[in-house]
Amino acid sequence: MEQVIKIGLLGLGTVGRGVYRILAENQENIRQRVGVKLEIKKIMVRSLDKDRGIPLPEGILTTNLGDITNDPEIKIVVEVLGGIHPALDYVLEALNHGKSVVTANKDMVAEHGQRLFKAAQSNKCDLFFEASVAGGIPIIRTLKQSLAGNRIEEVFGIINGTTNYMLTKMTQEGCDFDDVLREAQAKGYAESDPTADVGGFDAARKIAILASIAFNTRIPLHQVYTEGITKITAQDISYANELGYIIKLLGIAKDRPEGVEVRVHPTFIPKNHPLAAVGDVFNAVFVRGNAVGDTMFYGRGAGELPTASAVVADIMDAARDILRNVPGIIGCTCFKERPVLAIGETFSKYYIRLQVTDKPGVLASIALVFGNKEVSLKSVIQKEATGKTAELVLVTHRVQEQNVQDALMDIKQLSSVIEVANVIRVEGEE
Ligand code: NDP
Ligand code: HSE
Fold first, then answer.
1. Single GO molecular-function term (predicted)?
2. What pLDDT sits at residue 429?
3. Which atom of ligand 2 is nearest the CA belonging to 206?
4. Is 206 an annotated catalytic residue?
């Protein structure tokens, strides 16, 4: 009789549907690569009545977790529900029933990775989460296995598809923020609560996961400095263009002697930087290892089939481990405890846009404050003077963030300064 490994799928939304489709369409190829057939036996959803848009066998849907976790035939549970509750309880339940787990859930992995890994280890199960970062790009397996011989020095890149799609449309077509967010939602890129995307939290979870693996230390999510794209205006995009930059939301993690630096924020990068060409829903991750040097990984960071591609590869690995009786062979790799540096301890160049009163001496008073805080200015441009107000655009040299923050505190007190309209870090150039 043909050997089959049975799977329980939790969720049949964007990603779940993609997993179902790939396992069906590439069935023969997958069977040959793994050595056995992989078959979805049950799918847990919220609503049994929803039109799923794909033909499903009678009785495959359930709303009862026990139909999956209590079924001894099901060896692998795939969690693509999203969110922390009830997904975390469901995954723990699956692991405690001895099932290997594949998940795309960065919220859960970033916040509860330690607990999940403990449960996987004590139950001798696999816990795979390739799709949780950068959709279809195989970056987690790359860091954990392919680059395992390196000391990783830096990991950074575009790791949120929704915001990259939005910034691309806003930059290239001048689209409105809310319109383009709605488009990203309609395409299935955005999280169920898109604040996670535009607020930078989704990217923060992903860079926390990547940095934990890269530097072998657990990165608590609350220590990841996080800024989203909600403050980016058409004005900033236009000034960036004029100054030779493009704005991208980057996740940045660096290993420094004093500790690790992990942050997410909109960033000016030079137009000729390789990340500048990464548009639409694409993601790209740079990794610098002390042996391999610079590497870059590029692909679709969200969407049904790209994300499901990563999930299915994890399912295949879990199935191989089951066949060889070695589930759990690659577990948690956080065996160090490194401090996470505060944002004030990081270094960057800064673009600063100020609204000021349009009168003589204003620029000199602002430059003096920056000078007092050892922030040297690379360029200063006065924009849109009306006779009453003017806009100043400044770019600093590379300085410590704390000095910039201290200078801005003092600048806000100047009577000639109406508003610090925006501050954006500049990376990717000497
Ligand atoms: P969707 O919202 O499209 O789908 C969620 C699915 O889970 C639905 O089928 C829903 O059931 C089901 N579900 C949710 N809550 C429950 C519950 N309490 N009980 C039973 N079923 C439930 O999400 P996505 O497919 O977009 O995302 C899934 C996961 O993948 C998330 O963790 C997300 O962050 C991650 N991810 C998503 C990517 C993407 O491009 N969309 C890319 C990378 C990762 P019903 O259909 O009945 O409502
Ligand atoms: N909402 C996420 C994004 C999905 O846009 O990148 C992929 O993790």
1. homoserine dehydrogenase activity
2. 87
3. 8
4. yes
C-alpha span between 52 and 54 (Å, rounded):
6
Torsion angles phi and psi, residue 232, rounded to 5: -75, 125
Same topology, domains 139-300 and 344-426? Answer is: no
The amino acid present at 311, given as its one-letter code, is V
Whether the Cβ atoms of residue 259 and residue 336 lie closer than 8 Å to each other: no
| The model's pTM | 0.97
For residue 83, report the distance from its CA to the centre of ligand 1, in Å: 8
Interval between CA 411 and ligand 2 midpoint (Å): 37
pLDDT, residue 409, reads 98
Q: What CATH number matches the domain at 4-135+304-323, 1.20.120.50, 3.40.50.720, 3.40.50.2000, 3.30.70.330?
A: 3.40.50.720
| CATH class for the domain made up of 344-426 | alpha beta
Assess whether the C-beta atom of 104 lies below 6 angstroms from ligand 1.
yes
Exposed / middle / buried, residue 219 (Cβ in 10 Å: 0-12, 13-18, 19+): buried
Q: Chain-centre distance of CA 248, in angstroms?
A: 13
Q: Where are the domains of the chain?
A: 4-135+304-323, 139-300, 344-426
Rg (CA), the chain: 24
pLDDT, residue 218, reads 96
Show binding-site residues.
106, 191
* Cα distance between residue 363 and residue 394, in whole Å: 10
**pLDDT value of residue 30:** 98
Which residues of the chain register pLDDT less than 50?
Answer: none
